[in-house]
Write a structure and sequence with these properties.
Shape: globular
Number of helices: 9
Number of strands: 12
Strand content: 15-25%
Strand order of the largest sheet: 1-2-3-4-5-6-7
Distance between the termini: 57 Å
Oligomer: single chain
Helix content: 25-40%
Largest sheet: 7 strands, mixed
Radius of gyration: 21 Å
Length: 297
C-alpha cells in the first residue's frame, strides 16, 4: 500500500513538472513582426505564419494561429497599425491557422475561406460537440468561395485562389499583385518535408500541382510567406518542386515493383539526398505519406 502511494506521488510530481513546462513554453511564445513591403508584414509565433496587409481602406489578416495567442497577436498588430482587422482569411482549416477565429470575429473581422474549410470545421465541431450555439459559430468562415476570389483594396488587387487536393482539399494561395507577395499557407513548408493531410483530401500530386501554380504566379522578386518557415523565393519553390517530384517518382517505382508500405517506409534510399528536409515530418513519414497518397488518388 505504501509503495502504491509513493508511486502515485512520484507520478503526480512528474505531471506537475510537465504541466509547468507546457505553461512555461506557452508564456515564452513571442510574436515576431517582419516587414516585407510598405504594406505587408509576416508575423511569426507558434503555428502557421500570419500575413498582415495594411492600408487606408482596410486591414487584412491571413491565418491567426492558436486562440491563446490572440492577445499577443493583437498587440503586435497594434504596433503596426491602430486600425482593427477587417478581413481574416483562412488558408485552410487546421487549428494552428484557425484557432484564433472566434477571438478575431469578436474583434470585428469577417472570416473568409474556401467552401471546404467551413465544411470541415463544421463537421469537426459536430463531432467534438463544440460550436453548438450562435456565439461559438463566430469561429466559422462567413464568406466562402469555390475557385477564385479577388479583393480590391489599399491600392492593390488581392487574389485568393484555390489549389486542389494539396495540403488539404480547402487550401488557398493569397497573392498581392502590386506588392508582389505570395502567402502559400501549408501548401509550402519552407526547407522541410510537407505535411500532406491525406485524411483531409490532401495528395502528393495535388501538392506538386500547387507548387507549380506558385511558380507560375511568382517571379524572381516575389517575396513568399510559407505556412511554416522563413521568407522564401521562387528559386526555393523550384528546388522544392524537384524534391517532391523526385520522391513521388521514386515511391511510384517501388509501388510498381510490388513493395509494401512498410518496405517503403524503411527504405532510406528513396529520400537519399534530401535528408536536410527532415523536420516534424521525417523521411520515413514522407515516404509513407506519398505511398498512401499514390494508392488513394
Amino acid at each position: 500500500m505504501h509503495r502504491l502511494t509513493t508511486t502515485k506521488r512520484i507520478l503526480f510530481f512528474f505531471s506537475l513538472i510537465i504541466s509547468a513546462s507546457v505553461l512555461s513554453q506557452q508564456k515564452e511564445v513571442n510574436i515576431l513582426s517582419i516587414q516585407l513591403t510598405d504594406q505587408i508584414y509576416m508575423l511569426k509565433g507558434q503555428g502557421g505564419n500570419i500575413g498582415l496587409f495594411v492600408g487606408e481602406d482596410a486591414v487584412f489578416m491571413i491565418d491567426d494561429q492558436f486562440a491563446s495567442l490572440t492577445p499577443k497577436i493583437l498587440v503586435a498588430i497594434k504596433e503596426i497599425t491602430p486600425k482593427k482587422v477587417n478581413y481574416l482569411i483562412n488558408t485552410h482549416w487546421h487549428g494552428d491557422h484557425t484557432g484564433g477565429n472566434e477571438n478575431m470575429a469578436k474583434e470585428g473581422a469577417l472570416i473568409v475561406a474556401h467552401n471546404n474549410v467551413r465544411k470541415r470545421m463544421s463537421l469537426k465541431s459536430l463531432k467534438e460537440g463544440v460550436l453548438l450555439d450562435d456565439d461559438k459559430n463566430r469561429a466559422l468562415p462567413v464568406i466562402t468561395f469555390d475557385k477564385d476570389l479577388s479583393f480590391h483594396s489599399n491600392g492593390d488587387t488581392i487574389l485568393a485562389t484555390h489549389v486542389h487536393h494539396a495540403h488539404t482539399d480547402g487550401d488557398i494561395l493569397i497573392y498581392f499583385m502590386n506588392n508582389n507577395v505570395l502567402h502559400t499557407g501549408d501548401s509550402f513548408f519552407q526547407g522541410k518535408f510537407p505535411y500532406i493531410d491525406v485524411n483531409s483530401g490532401g495528395s502528393i500530386d495535388g501538392y506538386i500541382a500547387a507548387i507549380q501554380k506558385m511558380i507560375m504566379i511568382t517571379d524572381d522578386q516575389t517575396k513568399i510567406i510559407p505556412g511554416h518557415g522563413d521568407i522564401a523565393t521562387r528559386k526555393d519553390l523550384e528546388s522544392y518542386l524537384l524534391m517532391l517530384s523526385t520522391l513521388r517518382d521514386r515511391v511510384a517505382l517501388e509501388i510498381k515493383k510490388g513493395k509494401t508500405i512498410q518496405e517503403v517506409k524503411i527504405n532510406s534510399a528513396i529520400t537519399q539526398g534530401y535528408e536536410s528536409f527532415n523536420g516534424w515530418i521525417t523521411e520515413a513519414r514522407i515516404r509513407e505519406t506519398i505511398y498512401t497518397s499514390l494508392l488513394n488518388h
